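Subject: for your reference before the review

Hello V.,

The reviewers asked for a structural picture of the protein, and I figured it would be easier to keep everything in one thread rather than splitting it across files. Below is the amino acid sequence we used in the manuscript, unchanged from the supplementary table.
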Amino acid sequence: MTDHSALILSGGGARAAYQVGVLSALGKMVTKGSKLPFPILCGTSAGALNATMLATNADNFTKAVSKLAFVWRHLTPDQVYNVGRWPITASVTKTLISLFQDNNDAIALMDNSPLKNLLENFLEFPNIHTALNEGNLTALAITAMNYSTGESTTFFQAQEGIKPWQGTRRKGTIDTLTVDHLLASSAIPTIFPAHKVQDHYYGDGAIRQKSAIYPALQLGAKKLFIIGVSGNRSPKKWLTPERNKPSDAPGMAQILGQLLNSAFIDNLEDDIRQLEVMNRLINDIPEEKRQHHSLPTETLIISPSEELNDIAEHYIYTLPKNIRSLLKANGDSISETASSAASYLLFTPEYCRALIELGYKDAMWEKDRIHDFLANDNA
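And here is what came back from the structure prediction:
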């Protein structure tokens, strides 16, 4: 395998359905039955789940995206977390008790034990080893946050020759990837319980991740295909006038939504901006000196052309009643302030299908650029 292109899939809970739409469009652009067009896969949180599906079907990209689309189109909240009244009540009670006494159990507002069954049913982890041996995959990387050390830890399974790394509050370690790594990477703090991998408990990889593209660079990527889950890069966002009306004190759902946005969206947005600036500067350097710089020479970014919060607001009624009640427990208006938090928890067919369709449309809009990106890989 000679190309060094990487696919970066960020986190975002249910927002990751958008990535499936983009990937489905890519599946239409490549030869049916061809292998994975991105030898390096880097995923965080829900993006790690999508990346692993691609890795376990690296010999047939069309098949991989079809499986992904099937899972997300038929996803329901009870496949991700327990939605009954008593499991939620018990989780909230245990969380409150933990404020006053030690508790050896991982605490959270929701129990995501159903997610483990879903992942084990659809992912064949031994296929990762096969894909590496057959040359259909260079590396699969999954990032999680170590609660003991505060480090952003990237677990990766890769071909021989790729070394682990150690940086400031971030490291890469070679491991045989399992469902435990995915549950750790997608354990959104306060929402889902921390998950143990070997000797430590880990939480969502988007937390403390200073750079979403850093693992890809460490794994040897020279070209980056990034699928974001924010509409902040859309011209529609830039043209929207800033709201200047007085606001009420934020409720819990509104606070939670902003915290999730800062974890899943802001770091990647800053990463992309800095990378674009650096590449522009490198392009001004004489060609004979560019070889001394390790930054990618080409990036392609696909982001939502519509605000996902607005879409979530339209489908929030599809959430189980108990979850809707939890989001507005502190007086939030479901139609406005809770939509941001809900956009991460809306694992419903209606919402996920809407995001898949949006991702497909946005990717098709960028069809020419995607074709150029993929063609350069094969040149």
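For the response letter, the relevant points are probably these. The radius of gyration is 20 Å. The chain has 16 helices and ten strands.

Happy to draft the paragraph if you're swamped.

O.
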